[in-house]
Amino acid sequence: VRRALVLLLAGCSTPAASPAPPAQAAAPPASAPAPASELDGLVELAKHGPDQKEYPQADAVIALARDEITLGADRTVVEHQHTIVRILDAQRGKEKFADLHIPYDTTRETLTLQIARTVNADGTVHVASPDEITDILPPQLEGATTYSGVRERVVSFPGVDKGSVIELEYTRVTQATADAALGGEAPLATWDPIRSRVVRITAPKDAVVKLSVQGMTLEPVESSDATTRSYTFTEENLPDRHPEHGSPPDAAVLPRLVYSFLPDWKAALARVADRYLDAAVPAAIPAPVQALADKLVADAKTPFAMAEAIYRFVAHDVRTIDLPLGWAGYAPNPPDVVLANRYGDDRDKVGLFLALCAAAGIPGQPLLVRTEKVPVVAAVPTVAQFNRMIARVTIDGAERWVDPSDENGQFGVAFVGQDNQVLALARGGGELVHRPALDPETSVARVAAAFALSDKGDLEADYRYDLTGWFADRASETLRPLKGENLARWFQEAAARLAASAIDKAHEVGDLTSVYGAIRIRHTVTVPAYAPAQGSFRVFELPRSTLGFAVEKPPAGLTKRKYPLATGTPRTIIEELTLSVPAGWRVAYVPPELTGAAEGVRYRTSCRSEDRRVLCRGELSFTSLQLSAEQYPAFHDAMAKLQDYGQQIVLLTR
Amino acid sequence: MKQICTFAVVLSALAADARAAEPPPSDAALVAAIQRIKPGDYPSANSVLVLDEQSVVYQADGQFSNTSRTVRLVLSPAGKHAAAAASLDYAKDAETMEVLQARVIRADGTIVAVPAANIKDTEQSGDMNIYDPNGRSVKITVDGVAVGDAVDITSKLTRRTPTRVGFFNDIFNFQSGDPIIEASYSVDGPKSLPLTAEIYHPERGSKIVATRAPAGDRIQYRWTTRNEPQLVPEALMPYMTELPTLIVTTDPSWEHFSTWWSQVTAPQMAASDAIKQKVAELTKDKKTDDEKIHALYDFVAADVRYRGLGVGPRTGYTPRRADDTYSSRWGVCRDVAILLTTMLRTGGFEAYPVLTNVGDPVLPKVAYDGFNHAIVAMPRKGGGWTYLDPTAKNSSDLLPGYEREQSSLVCTDKGEKLGIIPPIVPDANLGHAVAKSVIGPDGSLTSTVTMSTKGVFDLVLRSVAAMMPADQQRETAEQLIHGVLPDAELVDFKVSSALALWSPMKVDFTIKLPHAMLQAGEFRLLRTLVTSGALSFVENVLPQVLGSLPTRKYTLDAHVTFEYDADETVTLPAYTEVLALPNDVSSANAVSAVAAKCTQGEDRTSVTCHRSFQLKSRFIDPKQYRELRGALMAIGQVAHQPVVLGKERQ
């Protein structure tokens, strides 16, 4: 929550890094006394400001959130932020606002605090002391200190309580380096109510400014002076709102302003494309890279097999540094360096993959993508809109999208950047193109389960899983680190999904390093007294899958939604179950056939009984990445039907 | 009941001709040792610790240095991650950290040094809202690690400012998640300040050889072991009390440690005028001591947020001044404990700061710096203590249930023994769901449920409620209900105020199920709230959390004792024929008790169901675990059994 709030309080997303002036050390805020009238205003706000009568569910009310983003004549970008918040809920308000994190890149940015203080209703003012202002290493950089100079400045406000007013004012200056995105995003709303939201974008008169408001209609007021032109977006009395479980990220849900100081995508690409490709895929492939490529593809008979072998090496043998794109700039380390290091972030791993492909004669291209279905706005050209990099290779005329940073990934199934605009880099430029969503058939979990019930109610269950795409990724992520007794322990705990008495009898796991085709897993479980008789009845609950990730479904617990539901990558679950009924019992009921479809889902399940066997088959496909609030109720109803008790049990009678 | 098996190591009885600190193995010997390792001998491991050694030199004033060397051989791709990066934390105002050697020993025996550029001294990341301006971390990134390589890192931590001037203590674990080929811990200390040592659970690993060798005015101590098996952890095992662990200390007693912290904290407890004023304000309308104590506790618990500056020069033992914590309204446990102690004393009560642990208990035999939490104690009339934890937000108990059965050291000037916070009866941590359900003529079910809570259940519900606005509380409830009853309509939902700390938390809700009875051939299956599992915290959650293993090697730490009950009365339509009810369950043992029973009313128009589960002990040894699992299995078998009804009749 605290880091999410940074989006507003720390303003715009301006990734990138490159050599620049040294970092300014953390410094206490200038504590020049504020004009009495200003302070009086804050005391008045603390005394009589909006309260929980007005906003009964809000954590706090943001009295002022003002961002001024200015492009200088020398292309430096100055972000000046001023925020005034009144805490309304003692616990949630403090949790969100009392300790704030402001990210900045020490290699190319300076961050200066002007004001960090708390004002209470009795008129006391607590200025944050040097002890209360600290720079920390962002957790993402724990394993990547050789990569990036990004830090977070944590400001802890003293004396905060319900009703307190906290005021933060700071300036962050980004140098005009080659990695400067010259653009970014500013939220136009938060989950907490805002009384006054102002975003002002200023640039020299001769500079281009591209602006797009997403998620609402809002026009700027233009103004100018002798040398600059400004666009001011002003909003008042924005409502209190609350996030919902399963929603896409805030940037996809809440209104935002996307801005750029570049005229077009050509200009945006000109800053990164050649620099990236020259470093990642040099005209002369370095000898170690060429030698490795030759070795990797030596036994491959087709271009597809070659690319698969290269992907497997880069995904598995080069450790992924999980760093947001831009935190270390856009130019990668040379591929021979990445190969020697055996670690890399997105840029580096995509670069090495493409260099190896080039060495093997396979054409490929890097792409910048935005994750989690946050729409990329085509009208605003800036690389700040992208947070990951993947690759595309062309094999026998067909395009294959790959994510070498996914250490558990499958060749040709890149999950990030689906159904969105992606920025393809090419020498001399590149282009913005639309990447379609993956077909649900690219990620299939096929679960074949044979259940044998004894007369005492004991269950023998034999599960066979064939997992591709997203399901294979999950299997690899979960199981690859586990060996021997640790793996056995995991399967025992998975068996316990069925009942406390369940015992893992046997488990076999196929090749988890496979990057194509199905990963096969077999799990045999015995469950004493799984379905004891109730007199002459026995209700047999169809046992669920022991591997939760093999049947993972989007959350559909809410009846209706205010915001979209992120349903994850398109995928298909096929379950084929057989139940052997003990002698002396007859099948009185099996789940009825159920067939249907709604936006985002289609399903077909049926069961039948033959002699003392019950056979069930179900196929469930999730067909989209996201459902709107309007589409959701039909999806909820479909999922409720599938989970209905009548679909879960078989009734046996003596 | 906690059962810690300890074996004292009496150093004075050890052979005096014991060898001094061993010279490090030559590179050739190390490479040979690595090359002798067969991955097939370690089927559960992703890496092997070829060498895990620490060499400590301490002085009479408590300053010390610890030179640590690990050589980790990578056996699998997953093992590369652990080997390829290292993080060495230190506090710059009290310590220095040097990397003496960082290198990779390749599978072919070649040795490559980690370049200096890959060793960075950085800020720390600030876990748990603690941001230490003096907290630093040396990060080592190792290039080109492949399966078959070994990463060899030697670092030296020097403590300039000891935690306790004139004393030294340390902990060394002989077992880890990796198999260990050779582990050693050696200490060089002054004769004037000799070590006492305890090894806990030496029987759980390879033989530990201890030696002691006087050398002039120094004594050299050494403990070594070889071929230590890999730890395969069990869920909820208390690592501290279950593994082979060495404690060395010069602290004479727990009483001495208690006196020391009392003296460290005393100067920080001066009550400022602002504190005095606040205490007077908070207690002025309170009539009884109990009311006053609760008022002071409530203020500190609610108004002071958890935020820290880091460990400080005494590595975590020096609290801020009570007045600083009061005025800034933030602090970590020791700061908040000192503020509450100060306020209680200002209010005329006898109160002391207490060192304790959250999680694993402290090893009790010898005194050492093994605490991770601070609370407050007030003497009870007739003996014993009342404990208060002011960092426990939303707790209607002065001490939350999960801090019971835990080691505690009350810190007084005269010094106290290490104690155990007494256990609490299960029904002090009670969750109780009562449902009144009516089956309509159309087969629908309308149910009104009241969930009342005490102790830990109150704390959990209150904390969830406190962190969510009303709309989100309702949405969360709807999602939980739909997990079991997907077509249920949440008609009404009300949660008591989380802010009213001294009123028990309660949830009331009404749901409607349009089709509670499934027409299954000639029969109808009725799912009520209890029989569907909608209220089944025990049946749905506990088997996987507490009972997923058939047997255990290690003690299970459930962290709390508790009781959960669910009761439901279902009114049926007239002329309903009940053919079968869920089976009965009843069993009790030393650590748990379980009961489940449904009965049909004499008028045949109602069914009443009751389920109950008690966990009577926080710590459950492997033998008791079988009994606990048996109880969980028994209730699991009836968990979702429906009521079987005959055909609908007019």
Supply database-style keywords.
heterodimer; A: 654 residues; alpha+beta; 8-stranded mixed sheet; 12 helices; B: alpha+beta; 13 helices; globular; disordered N terminus
Oligomer: heterodimer
Overall pLDDT of chain A: 93
The major pleated sheet of chain A works out as: 8 strands, mixed
Regions with little confidence, pLDDT below 50 for 5+ residues of chain A: 1-33
- Looking across the biggest beta sheet of chain A, what order are the strands in? 5-4-8-2-1-10-13-12
The gross shape of chain B turns out to be: globular
User: What is the rounded Rg of chain A?
Assistant: 29 Å
Order of adjacent strands in the largest pleated sheet of chain B: 6-5-9-3-2-11-14-13
- Helicity level of chain B: 10-25%
Précis, in short:
Chain A has 654 residues and is of the alpha+beta class.
Description of the structure:
The complex is a heterodimer of chains A (654) and B (650). Chain A is built from 12 helices and 34 strands. With 654 residues, chain A is of the alpha+beta class. Mean pLDDT of chain A is 93; it is low at 1-33. Chain B has 650 residues and is an alpha+beta fold. The two termini of chain B are 58 Å apart. In chain B, strand 21 (407-410) and strand 22 form a beta hairpin. In chain B, the strands form 8 sheets. In chain B, strands 6-5-9-3-2-11-14-13 form an 8-stranded mixed β-sheet. In chain B, strands 25-26-24-23-30-34-33-32 form an 8-stranded mixed β-sheet. Chain B has a 5-stranded antiparallel β-sheet with strand order 20-19-18-21-22, covered by helices on one side. The radius of gyration of chain B is 29 Å and the shape is globular.
Task: Please describe the topology of this protein.
The complex is a heterodimer of chains A (654) and B (650).
Chain A lengths: L1 H8 L26 H13 L11 E12 L5 E11 L2 H8 L1 E7 L3 E11 L5 E3 L5 E4 L13 E7 L8 E10 L8 E5 L6 E11 L5 E5 L6 E4 L3 E11 L11 H4 L2 E5 L4 H16 L6 H10 L6 H15 L1 E2 L14 H7 L1 E2 L1 H14 L4 E6 L18 E8 L2 E5 L17 E7 L2 E7 L8 E10 L5 E9 L1 H11 L4 H12 L7 E7 L9 E9 L9 E5 L23 E2 L4 E10 L5 E4 L4 E5 L2 E10 L2 E10 L3 E2 L4 H12 L5 E5 L1
Parallel strand pairs in A: 1-10, 15-16, 22-28
Antiparallel strand pairs in A: 1-2, 2-8, 3-7, 4-5, 4-8, 6-7, 9-14, 10-13, 11-14, 12-13, 17-18, 17-20, 18-19, 20-21, 22-23, 23-25, 24-25, 26-34, 27-33, 28-32, 29-34, 30-31, 31-32
Chain B lengths: L5 E3 L18 H10 L10 E12 L5 E11 L2 H8 E7 L3 E11 L5 E3 L5 E5 L11 E7 L8 E10 L9 E5 L6 E11 L5 E5 L8 E7 L2 E11 L10 H4 L2 E5 L4 H12 L7 H11 L5 H15 L1 E2 L15 H7 L1 E2 L1 H14 L5 E5 L16 E7 L5 E4 L18 E4 L8 E2 L9 E10 L5 E9 L1 H12 L3 H15 L4 E7 L10 E8 L3 E4 L2 E4 L2 H4 L4 H10 L9 E2 L4 E10 L6 E3 L4 E4 L3 E9 L5 E10 L3 E2 L1 H17 L4 E3 L5
Parallel strand pairs in B: 2-11, 16-17, 23-30
Antiparallel strand pairs in B: 1-12, 2-3, 3-9, 4-8, 5-6, 5-9, 7-8, 10-15, 11-14, 12-15, 13-14, 18-19, 18-21, 19-20, 21-22, 23-24, 24-26, 25-26, 27-28, 28-36, 29-35, 30-34, 31-36, 32-33, 33-34
